[in-house]
UniProtKB/TrEMBL annotation:
Pfam families: AAA_21. One of its GO terms (molecular function) is ATP hydrolysis activity. Keywords: ATP-binding, Nucleotide-binding. This is ATP-binding protein. The lineage of its organism: Bacteria, Bacillati, Bacillota, Negativicutes, Selenomonadales.
Length: 425
């Protein structure tokens, strides 16, 4: 499960900032409904990130996606497969360097930092790395149950400066395959280290969707387009569009397989999967209000933006709920009625629909969601006049009580993170 994410020196984040889902022990409001307990700690089911337009909310979720891409690209680079490096999608990603914070001249010569914490089998794993000019400068993996133990420690781009212990010690004999521009943990996972595989499988399972990109089809695959899944989506889609009777989803999959070939990589394959999605919506047709048949229409062309956005979110939401994973949604309210947003939110809050302690992290402007929240599950992204964004927890603000009307205080500017319209002359 997801515990925390930090990022520094990229996008609007000059200094290291981020969020955690760990609850504060002294905050007791909505403890039963809004949190779940593992070991000695409670964790928030939902984390909300608020902020003015341009404050860095989207950039924060993009930073998580960037971290995931660096992990994937590490295995591509580590394969030393020139043919694979010429694949257009990979070539495009590798030609998009990390952008450091732009509004301070010293930031260009500093490293970009990522850190994520996850919980697996009640063990806390912390994984971080720093990258500069395409080279991995530092990399650290630790685990903690009763005490903290180092599993990977890297202090330079050179593989000779990598220390491996405990569950990663078996990778010592192959550590020479780690290039200066590739992550050690990614290469260990690629070469079948079981612990590395387990950790990266969790990190890579975190799905990030942007509700603003309405023109794209949902992320469908063979597992979420069966009859049972479609029936599940329709239950909620009909709330947005009661005329909808059914959906037809056709998939055309194309697997682009590349044999890595290097002896050190045990002839492993790198697979790029492309899925073309065609969605048709079915509606009843009537004569004098008597149903006489059905009409089939291209979903993305004829449905409302709100209905399309609902379908964009639902497969990811239900997969997350079923697997007990973590989902990140940017602008969750985009194009949706507030009641529909609340409906999606409550899928994570209610035990009946969230039996596996799935988590949701969402950016939003919807202040109605600030009713019945814990002070430690709300975050504010605020950008100063120097272009620097800091993400701060509501519970860190002084004199905020559990029974305060958070929505009113936020709109009054008590916590910042809103457009300053008072400056208009």
């Amino acid at each position: 499960m997801f515990v925390s994410f930090l990022v520094g020196n990229t996008g609007p984040f000059k200094d290291i900032t981020g969020i955690t889902t760990v609850c504060e022990s002294l905050k007791k409001e909505f403890l039963e409904r809004n949190t779940f307990k593992i070991g000695n700690y409670n964790y928030n089911k939902i984390s909300y990130i608020y902020g003015a337009n341009g404050s860095g909310k989207t950039n924060f979720l993009s930073a998580l996606t960037k971290m995931q891409k660096i992990i994937v690209m590490s295995t591509v680079l580590g394969s030393n497969n020139n043919k694979l490096l010429e694949v257009p999608a990979i070539k495009k990603e590798l030609s998009s360097p990390i952008e450091t914070f732009k509004f301070d001249v010293d930031s260009k010569s500093k490293e970009t930092f990522f850190e994520i914490q996850i919980l697996l089998d009640e063990i806390l794993y912390s994984y971080s790395f720093a990258i500069q000019d395409g080279k991995i400068q530092r990399e650290l993996l630790t685990k903690k149950k009763k005490r903290t133990e180092i599993l990977i420690k890297r202090i330079s781009p050179k593989y000779e400066d990598i220390i491996l212990k405990s569950g990663l010690a078996s990778f010592k004999n192959m550590v020479s395959v780690v290039r200066d521009d590739a992550l050690c943990l990614a290469m260990a996972a690629m070469l079948n280290n079981s612990l590395a595989n387990k950790i990266l499988s969790e990190i890579m399972s975190y799905n990030v969707i942007n509700m603003a990109s309405v023109g794209n089809a949902p992320n469908f695959d063979e597992d979420n387009t069966n009859e049972k899944a479609i029936k599940r989506y329709l239950k909620y889609l009909r709330i947005a569009d009661p005329t909808l009777t059914n959906l037809k989803v056709d998939l055309e999959s194309k697997l682009d397989k590349h044999i890595l070939g290097d002896d050190d990589l045990e002839n492993k394959e790198f697979i790029i999967k492309n899925i073309q999605v065609s969605i048709q919506s079915l509606h009843a047709i009537y004569k004098k209000h008597k149903r006489i048949g059905e009409i089939e229409l291209p979903f993305l062309k004829y449905e409302s933006n709100g209905t399309i956005r609902m379908l964009k979110a639902l497969p990811a939401i239900f997969e997350t709920l079923d697997m007990g994973n973590t989902l990140f949604i940017d602008e969750i309210e985009n194009g949706l009625h507030p009641n529909l947003v609340k409906l999606l939110i409550n899928l994570f809050n209610f035990k009946e629909t969230n039996k596996n302690n799935a988590q949701l992290v969402c950016t939003t402007h919807d202040t109605l969601l600030l009713d019945e929240v814990r002070r430690d599950q709300v975050w504010f992204a605020d950008k100063n006049i120097f272009g620097e964004t800091i993400i701060k927890r509501l519970s860190d603000y002084p004199n905020v009580r559990g029974n305060d009307n958070i929505r009113v205080k936020y709109l009054q500017g008590v916590f910042g993170a809103i457009p300053n319209i008072l400056d208009l002359k």
